[in-house]
């Protein structure tokens, strides 16, 4: 087949158009949030003292940190799914979450008495955290991988990893409403490990799923 | 100038997305020339046919044109896709060397394979389901319109469009697979 022959075929197929990628991402994030919310309310639900906890700084900080992660990961994933866009400019924002969390950890180390550090770090929900953040994030990750497939990631592996990061951010935001361990020490350690699991899974699947 | 080419291509692609087939053909023709130059510059050692890269890139651009934002520059988008397809072709070539003998044996065993085009895309076209293959071939190689193709095969125009779209999608997927 000559190149002009191919152009004949492509031209004749011009009317068949897919959903613009920009819209597709908003559909994906809406669907992922709903799926994560359903999983959260069915599996664990918010903690009983939610209203009282909402007035404490540590509790609110969990949401600030996880929502920051979610927003940055969403922006980066959109850029990664589009050939020729400026990835680096957006990728820099990834440091925002570790910086926020790092500052919170330092403050916590000053505030909490040394003999209690181990207790707040280990908390009482380690296994719950390590189980339910990945579990709530699985549905969103699947949705984001489908959206990535719809896009055109020139680096499918890293794009899949960021899909996992975004799924983790959403899952952790919901999970934070359940967990009674509010110390930044707990969040920095166990949330990170749980989210990292989704990142690795996303990287592996992205390389297979998002080929084009 | 690069700026003029950029503006012209963006205008053509915008018109194409709005439904102008002529603008789309012009866009693809100009893009083919750009990618051809790019591929010839990058392929210095041989092993990969630049025209294969041109065709795979055009097909990828077609299947992924919804990833272009209408106010974003179009040339970086085209080059990124071409680069991705070029790297992919080199990677695949590395794999293929091992199965070359098997390929030759098969070609010898089936005399009809000799008539196919030597291009990768011709081979992929050959792997389509018979219905899709004849529709895609009629429109591409024979240069028939949707209407003429529908008449030739006694199909509705909608059925021809669907067969064409599915055929192209399946060729694109074949290239995407490792």
Put the structure in a nutshell.
The complex is a heterodimer of chains A (212) and B (178). Chain A has 212 residues and is mainly α.
Topology, element by element:
The complex is a heterodimer of chains A (212) and B (178).
Chain A: H1 3-12, H2 21-43, H3 50-53, H4 57-80, H5 87-91, H6 96-111, H7 117-122, H8 126-150, H9 156-176, H10 184-209
Helix pairs in contact in A: 2-8, 2-9, 4-6, 4-9, 6-10, 8-9, 8-10, 9-10
Chain B: H1 2-17, H2 21-42, H3 50-63, H4 75-96, H5 100-109, H6 120-126, H7 130-140, H8 146-153, H9 157-176
Q: What can you see in these coordinates?
A:
The complex is a heterodimer of chains A (212) and B (178). In chain A, 75% of the residues lie in helices and 0% in strands. By secondary structure, chain A is mainly alpha-helical. In chain A, helix 2 packs across helix 9. Chain B folds into 2 domains: 95 residues, Rna Polymerase Sigma Factor, Chain: A (Orthogonal Bundle); 61 residues, Orthogonal Bundle (Arc Repressor Mutant, subunit A), CATH 1.10.10.10. The longest helix of chain B is centred in the first third of the chain and has 22 residues. In chain B, helix 7 packs across helix 9 and helix 8 packs across helix 9. Chain B has 9 helices and no strands. About 13% of the residues of chain B have low confidence. The chains are: A mainly alpha (212), B mainly alpha (178).
């Amino acid at each position: 087949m000559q190149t002009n022959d191919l152009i004949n075929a492509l031209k004749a197929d011009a009317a068949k158009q897919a959903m613009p990628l920009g819209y597709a991402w908003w559909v994906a994030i809406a669907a992922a949030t709903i799926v994560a919310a359903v999983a959260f309310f069915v599996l664990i639900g918010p903690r009983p003292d939610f209203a009282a906890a909402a007035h404490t700084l540590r509790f609110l900080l969990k949401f600030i940190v996880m929502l920051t992660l979610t927003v940055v990961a969403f922006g980066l994933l959109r850029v990664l799914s589009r050939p020729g866009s400026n990835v680096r400019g957006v990728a820099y924002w990834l440091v925002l979450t570790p910086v926020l969390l790092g500052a919170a950890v330092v403050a916590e180390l000053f505030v909490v008495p040394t003999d209690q550090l181990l207790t707040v770090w280990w908390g009482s929900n380690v296994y719950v955290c390590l189980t339910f953040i990945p579990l709530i994030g699985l549905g969103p990750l699947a949705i984001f991988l489908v959206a990535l497939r719809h896009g055109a990631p020139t680096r499918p592996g890293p794009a899949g990893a960021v899909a996992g990061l975004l799924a983790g951010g959403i899952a952790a935001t919901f999970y934070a409403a359940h967990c009674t361990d509010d110390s930044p020490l707990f969040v920095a350690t166990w949330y990170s490990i749980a989210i990292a699991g989704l990142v690795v899974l996303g990287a592996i699947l992205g390389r297979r799923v998002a080929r084009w | 100038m690069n700026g003029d080419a950029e503006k012209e291509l963006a205008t053509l692609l915008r018109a194409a997305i709005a439904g102008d087939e002529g603008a789309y053909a012009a866009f693809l023709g100009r893009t083919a020339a750009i990618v051809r130059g790019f591929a010839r510059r990058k392929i210095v050692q041989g092993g990969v046919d630049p025209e294969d890269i041109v065709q795979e890139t055009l097909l990828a651009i077609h299947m992924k044109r919804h990833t272009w934002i209408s106010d974003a520059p179009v040339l970086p988008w085209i080059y990124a896709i071409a680069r991705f397809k070029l790297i992919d072709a080199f990677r695949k070539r590395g794999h293929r060397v091992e199965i070359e003998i098997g390929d030759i044996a098969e070609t010898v065993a089936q005399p009809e394979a000799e008539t196919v085009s030597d291009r990768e895309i011709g081979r992929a076209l050959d792997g389509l389901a018979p219905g899709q293959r004849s529709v895609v071939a009629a429109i591409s190689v024979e240069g028939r319109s949707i209407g003429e193709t529908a008449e030739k095969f006694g199909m509705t125009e909608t059925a021809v469009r669907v067969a064409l779209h599915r055929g192209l999608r399946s060729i694109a997927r074949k290239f995407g697979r490792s």
